[in-house]
Amino acid sequence: MTQRSSGGVQVMNADVPWDAAFDSIAYLDHNYRALQAEDAEILHIIRDHFGDHFRKQGVGPVSGIDVGAGVNLYPALAMLPWCDEITLFERSASNVAYLKSQIDGYDDNWDKFWAALCRKDAYRTMDMDPRERFRKVVQVEQGDIFDLRDEGRWSVGTMFFVAESMTAVHAEFELGVERFMRALAPGAPFATAFMEHSKGYHAGEHFFPACDVGESDVRASLEAFAGDFKVQRLESAAAVRDGYSGMIVAYGWRANSDSPIPVG
């Protein structure tokens, strides 16, 4: 059921025709055909975070997940050097079809994103061509984030522009973050990104809802599930589209145990 607030109707995730209406190629063309300044800044942050974590830990191959992958491959590329399995978890049928089309050899536009990652040694010195490794380790799974209940399964994870971009309801935003965090093993490094104060967005001709969140909302949604983590607003100020005030990145590690959530 659609929830209502004093401000009017709030569109819930279940109200949105994700399979019928989301134009994956239009969204890809607008956001990822070129490497934009915001994504370059995000790549800098996450390559250092993951690279430093795995260099210090010295662990063997791990399993990774990108929740709500959409048509964005760079979170998976950011996890590539350390994973023998990466799950691209996505709801929209058209996005799933695009992701599957990239497994055997991803498109040339992603080379710019890989090149940005290769400023870190772990990517530049990887012992396999990135397309070959991508083909070997990446799998696509269609599913709803609210049904993601494999707690503690993955040892590294990403979720970019998902929890706040699938609903206008704050409780669903918080639940989306919780489902992502609970899927990670204790101590797992993670990276997330959010559109700040988004009013919604287009994918082709159709308009999709967003939840209005800021840095304090992002921090509050993570506090019960993350150990050490950082929330920062990107310095890049160029607008990718209308209807938002900036981008927020949060990254850190899954807590060893969840903090009690206050009641009332």
TrEMBL record:
InterPro entries: NNMT_TEMT_trans, SAM-dependent_MTases_sf
Keyword Methyltransferase listed: yes
Top-rank lineage group of the source organism: Bacteria
Pfam families: NNMT_PNMT_TEMT (PF01234)
Keywords, sorted A to Z: Methyltransferase, S-adenosyl-L-methionine, Transferase
GO annotation terms (biological process): methylation
PROSITE patterns in the record: SAM_MT_NNMT_PNMT_TEMT (PS51681)
Alphabetized GO MF terms: methyltransferase activity
Keyword S-adenosyl-L-methionine among record annotations: yes
Protein name: SCO2525 family SAM-dependent methyltransferase
Gene source species: Streptomyces nigra
